[in-house]
Amino acid sequence: LTLASVAMNSLLLRPLPSATTSGSLVGRVSPAAQRRPGAVAWPRDGRCRRGGVAAAGAWMEEAGTAVLEEAVRRNPALSESYRPAGLPRPNGTVLEAQGRVCTGPEQTRPLGEEQAMRVLDTILRSATGELKDEPVSSAQLGAFFAGMTIRANCFPEATQWSEGERRAMSLFWPRLVHVLPPEVKFIADPEGTIMGANGLTGPRYIGQGTAEMRLVGALREVLAGGHLGYEEIQCVLKDVLPFGSMGASSPSVSEALLAAFLIGQRMNRETDRELKGYCLAFDDELGPPPIADVNSLTHYGEPYDGNTRFFRSTLFVAAVRACYGEACLLHGVEWMPPKGGITEGQMLKFMGANTHLSPTQAKTLLEVCVQFCILC
Questions:
Q1: Between the CA of residue 217 and those of 83, 119, 261, what are the distances in Å?
Q2: Are residues 246 and 214 in contact, defined by beta-carbon separation less than 8 angstroms?
Q3: Are residues 139 and 281 in the same domain?
Q4: Whole-angstrom Cα distance, residue 303 to residue 179?
Q5: Among the three residues 286, 308, 342, which one is the final residue of a domain in this structure?
Q6: Whole-angstrom Cα distance, residue 339 to residue 304?
Q7: Which contiguous run of DSSP H or E holds residue 211?
Q8: Which of 193-202, 206-215, 235-244, 308-317 has the highest average model confidence (pLDDT)?
Q9: Is 223 exposed, middle or buried (0-12, 13-18, 19+ CB in 10 A)?
Q10: What are phi and psi of 199, to 5 degrees?
Q11: Is residue 79 included in any domain, yes or no?
Q12: Cβ(303)–Cβ(185) under 8 Å?
């Protein structure tokens, strides 16, 4: 979580790990901080009335905060530099296609014949072991074919398969069916209605083990454009949580199936019941989130994969609102494919913020900053 609080304080300063997070901080700070003339009490129903740069800096130091060093900052204009070093690089050709076809019913842009041919040829060569340096991952295969299946089954005519995509698939699928793993063939044609005589794997596929069997059952509904109840979502997520650390060698379910499930839910646009299922599943795994003692809280969650084409004003809107006593919370990630755009996490980190607050730390800062204004 990243926090935008009073007068940009939390954008520029970070709490040290030793900072207290107990509930005793609600509505007050240390007596030493209260004695400082620049640490001004902020009534919940009013604005900050006075403050000073020097005193504010001293108060923040005393409260256990420090400015991030210049050495750890990176320019968000070079968004790719934020990519985690240990994260395997996806195949660029398929990733570009995913950006076009793995999106919503109105936003999807069908592939032209030339691009569709290139993508399917890349998948074929990867499956036969020819692309050692840039293979197409299982997750990419699951996401790409899930997008194609959902488009064929339930998207509006304008965003269904183009004629070029149909011709490319009719040419390559008879060869792909011999080299793709069973779970990917299931994702590409779960009911045997898309690929004709070469789509017989899907109707018979059940997965391996209890977790995959439950996931496959849910996927059949998702790939047909349907929605799930929150109980079904909870059951599926309980099988795959906690997500393994990067590079885990033995996931409980196929990466292709999990990727297809997640992107399929996104393309179908999750219902309130489905989102409730995700929240309950994560609460079961991580424990219920702490509740901040504030009068109101506005939270902002922009596209997690960032932006590349327009100005991101949310961060500054949150800071201005915070100056008027409106507690604000921003949440996101530092970098995420497929867009890999500039995120609020990158902007905050470049400004010197701690962008890795836990929910408990965010709760504490929200409660303290609503009571005190530090002008700097």
A1: 34, 28, 11
A2: no
A3: yes
A4: 35
A5: 286
A6: 9
A7: helix 209-223
A8: 206-215
A9: buried
A10: -115, 40
A11: no
A12: no
Identify whether residues 305 and 268 lie together within a single domain: no
Does residue 84 fall inside a structural domain?
A: no
Long-range (24+ apart) CB contacts under 8 A made by 244-253 are: 246/84, 246/86, 246/87, 247/86, 252/209, 252/211, 253/207, 253/209, 253/211, 253/212, 253/215
pTM above 0.70, yes or no: yes
Opening angle at CA 262, ends 257 and 268, nearest 5: 120
Q: Which letter does DSSP use for residue 25 in this model?
A: G
pLDDT for 189 equals 96
What's the total number of domains in the chain? Answer: 2
Instruction: Say whether both 363 and 221 belong to one domain.
Output: no
Predicted confidence (pLDDT) per residue in 131-157, tens digit: 999 999 999 999 999 999 999 999 999
3-state DSSP of 327-338: CEEECCCCCCCC
How far is it, in rounded angstroms, from Cα 277 to Cα 222?
A: 15
CA distance 14 to 69: 11
The sign of the CA dihedral 191, 193, 199, 200 is positive
Range of 218's domain? 93-286
Cα–Cα distance, 330 to 362 (Å, whole number): 10
Of 335, 343, 287, whose CA–CA distance to 89 is shortest?
A: 335
Q: Phi/psi at 373 (nearest 5 deg)?
A: -110, 130
Q: Is the pLDDT of residue 273 over 90?
A: yes
pLDDT digits (tens, 9 = 90+) for 47-76: 443 333 344 344 444 444 444 455 456 676
